[in-house]
């Protein structure tokens, strides 16, 4: 039985309400302030929809609720939006979600991020995964792949296969072709559809997929626990009432609770499956590898379009490592990537002409949906166009232009080292030997009782989407933040590809975190935008937990007062540092409360740390011919 409903509300009204609702729920998800939602929702209903030059008008759709059987008898709920008055069979575009399909397609109005695609004609379907929304079964976060030899085994790939099989057989008016897309967790689900794909599946677009949630996405970054993302996730997805944060300042909330054990118990997430997984598997063992997208999606059996943002605060690594992995076996030339100047899901919003303080001079998000995503899907699902797509599309901030490449990262780059030098100088020239032959260093204190904030306080959770764009002057000058800065550039400098920090460091303790930031320092005088004078913009940044200095699969104490080599992946970027700007590198050892505090005394499992385990320590960054700490950047000619 297929139930049908249709929308009677104006498109502008529903677009405004949905856009506001998504922002409000995102804020509530991070802060636990769900009591704000009803009152603010009433206000949001009155807001007018933001428009843009490329925003197409809404078409009329018929809404249908579907119940789709899986091979093990579990039934999954879905909602289809079929264009009214279609004159030819249309392909199906599927989005699988853990976030309530009925809410995502609440009415017969097509959501804004899909409008450009809708111009070519699709039957859109969104489906609740097992155990979520109105679907039966048990929900498992990033469910591991079942044994392919087990005919009764089920996972997200088999569920996608069974869903596609049912859709092409039972949904009227389809042409037998299916595409799958989605952002964030939905992006991971889109990728899983490409593992042993159904014959009718012709294209997938994993957008900001949460690929490796230990290595560089939602839950850990190179071993450091991302508590302000992971705690609300466990409370919201696997709990009942979400996360309650009574403090206005999240920094104070997490510092007051102290240890991870206390945080888990106080917030109620200690018994949630995800939290128990975090605690039982603090290193990158088989538990995390089984859940990592790039461990199972290793080749393009269907065309793939990875999409990501250079300032994605949630899933920056996913599209980059996913594309890189598939590219190694892309014999059919089906693997593509788009990287733009966006925060998480920024390409799905209207405009995209700015991000935080940055101005791009054009609607980068509109351009992606109109000129890249739409023709890409149209070629594989509608036979439109010639299919001559570049290997990579990337937006170069600074010069503010889209560029295409026949390889990503570009092959033409030269690897150059930005050395941390004496007197706080950053230079492409390597350090010189000291007259007495001694090795040189810069030292700074790190006290877990007074961690460096990741965003200006008070941290009410509302600035999470833009924290990577914050002016870093709010921590510059702190004694626990070491800084090196270059002379003003005499010509533009463009980096394209992987940025990596290689630190030679030591600690008076037996564990330490290393946060490294590559920063663009604007001139003090910016005539057309005085507010940008002296602005310190993070271009690349990330954190690495020092205990994994011998490998991410095992923790080892750092020998106290001993120089050790640490590698910190700062991920990819396409960015032009303009003439007159300066380059800066900051190194620190806390980034709170985004990441948990390292006790700085080796504990086998930091989730078991007690208040007495946290110790202040002195860290040293060495900078000499024997220990040349530096940031490696890929420079375009």
Whole-number radius of gyration? 25 Å
Tertiary shape? globular
Q: Can you give the mean pLDDT?
A: 91
Strand order in the sheet with the most strands: 1-2-3-5-4-6-7-10-11-14-15
Distance between the termini: 62 Å
Q: Can you give the helix content as a percent range? A: 10-25%
Provide the β-strand percentage band: 25-35%
Helix-strand makeup class: alpha+beta
Characterization of the model:
With about 625 residues, the protein is an alpha+beta fold. The chain is built from 14 helices and 26 strands. The strands form five sheets. The chain has an eleven-stranded mixed beta sheet with strand order 1-2-3-5-4-6-7-10-11-14-15, with helices on both faces. Strands 16, 17, 18, 20, 23, 25 and 26 form a seven-stranded antiparallel beta sheet that branches. It has a four-stranded antiparallel beta sheet with strand order 19-24-21-22, with no helix packed on it. α1 (about 10-30) packs antiparallel against α2. The longest helix is centred in the N-terminal third of the chain and has 21 residues, at about 10-30. The N and C termini lie far apart (about 60 Å). The relative contact order is 0.11.
Give structural attributes.
alpha+beta; eleven-stranded mixed sheet; 14 helices; 26 strands; 21% helix; globular
Overview in brief:
With 637 residues, the protein is α+β, with helices and mostly antiparallel strands. It is built from 14 helices and 26 strands.
């Amino acid at each position: 039985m297929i139930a049908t409903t249709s929308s009677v509300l104006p498109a502008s009204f529903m677009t405004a309400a949905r856009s506001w609702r998504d922002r409000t729920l995102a804020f509530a998800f991070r802060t636990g302030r769900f009591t704000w939602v009803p009152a603010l929702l009433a206000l949001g209903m009155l807001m007018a929809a933001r428009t843009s030059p490329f925003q197409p008008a809404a078409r009329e759709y018929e809404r249908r609720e579907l119940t789709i059987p899986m091979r093990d008898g579990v039934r999954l709920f879905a909602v289809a939006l079929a264009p009214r008055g279609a004159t030819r069979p249309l392909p199906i575009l599927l989005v699988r979600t853990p976030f309530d399909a009925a809410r995502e397609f609440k009415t017969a109005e097509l959501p804004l991020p899909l409008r450009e695609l809708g111009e070519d004609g699709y039957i859109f379907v969104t489906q609740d995964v097992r155990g979520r929304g109105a679907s039966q079964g048990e929900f498992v976060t990033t469910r591991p792949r079942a044994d392919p030899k087990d005919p009764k085994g089920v996972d997200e790939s088999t569920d996608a296969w069974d869903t596609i099989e049912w859709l092409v057989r039972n949904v009227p008016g389809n042409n037998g072709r299916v595409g799958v897309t989605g952002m964030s967790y939905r992006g991971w689900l889109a990728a899983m559809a490409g593992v042993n794909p159904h014959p009718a599946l012709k294209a997938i677009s994993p957008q900001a997929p949460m690929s490796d949630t230990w290595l560089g996405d939602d839950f850990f970054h190179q071993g450091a626990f991302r508590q302000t993302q992971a705690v609300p996730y466990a409370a919201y997805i696997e709990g009942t009432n979400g996360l309650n944060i009574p403090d206005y300042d999240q920094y104070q909330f997490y510092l007051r609770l102290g240890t991870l054990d206390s945080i888990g118990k106080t917030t109620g997430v200690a018994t949630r499956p995800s939290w128990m997984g975090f605690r039982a598997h603090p290193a990158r063992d088989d538990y995390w590898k089984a859940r990592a997208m790039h461990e199972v999606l290793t080749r393009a059996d269907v065309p793939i379009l990875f999409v990501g943002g250079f300032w994605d605060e949630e899933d920056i690594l996913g599209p980059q490592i996913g594309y890189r992995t598939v590219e190694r076996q892309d014999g059919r030339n089906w693997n593509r990537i788009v990287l733009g100047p966006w925060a998480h899901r920024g390409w799905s919003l209207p405009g995209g002409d700015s991000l935080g303080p940055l101005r791009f001079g054009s609607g980068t998000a509109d351009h992606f949906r109109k000129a890249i995503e739409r023709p890409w899907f149209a070629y594989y699902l509608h036979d439109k166009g010639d299919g001559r797509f570049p290997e990579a599309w990337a937006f170069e901030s600074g010069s503010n232009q889209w560029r295409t490449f026949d390889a990503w990262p570009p092959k033409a780059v030269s690897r150059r080292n930005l050395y941390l030098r004496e007197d706080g100088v950053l230079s492409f020239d390597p350090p010189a030997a000291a007259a007495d032959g001694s090795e040189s260093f810069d030292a700074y204190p790190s006290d877990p009782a007074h961690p460096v904030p990741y965003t200006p306080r008070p941290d009410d959770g509302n600035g999470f989407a833009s924290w990577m764009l914050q002016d870093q002057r709010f921590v510059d000058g702190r004694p626990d933040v070491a800084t090196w800065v270059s002379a003003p550039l005499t010509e533009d400098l463009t980096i394209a590809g992987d940025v990596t920090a290689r630190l030679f460091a030591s600690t008076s303790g037996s564990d330490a975190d290393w946060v490294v930031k590559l920063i663009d320092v604007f001139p003090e005088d910016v005539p057309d935008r005085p507010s940008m004078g002296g602005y310190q913009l993070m271009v690349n940044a990330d954190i690495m937990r020092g205990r994994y200095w011998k490998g991410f699969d095992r923790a080892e104490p750092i020998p106290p007062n001993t120089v050790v080599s640490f590698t910190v992946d700062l991920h990819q970027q396409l960015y032009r540092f303009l003439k007159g700007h300066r380059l800066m590198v900051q190194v620190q050892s806390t980034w709170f409360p985004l990441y948990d505090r390292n006790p700085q005394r080796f504990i086998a499992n930091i989730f078991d740390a007690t208040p007495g385990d946290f110790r202040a320590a002195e860290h040293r960054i060495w900078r000499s011919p024997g220990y040349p700490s530096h940031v490696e950047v890929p420079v375009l000619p």
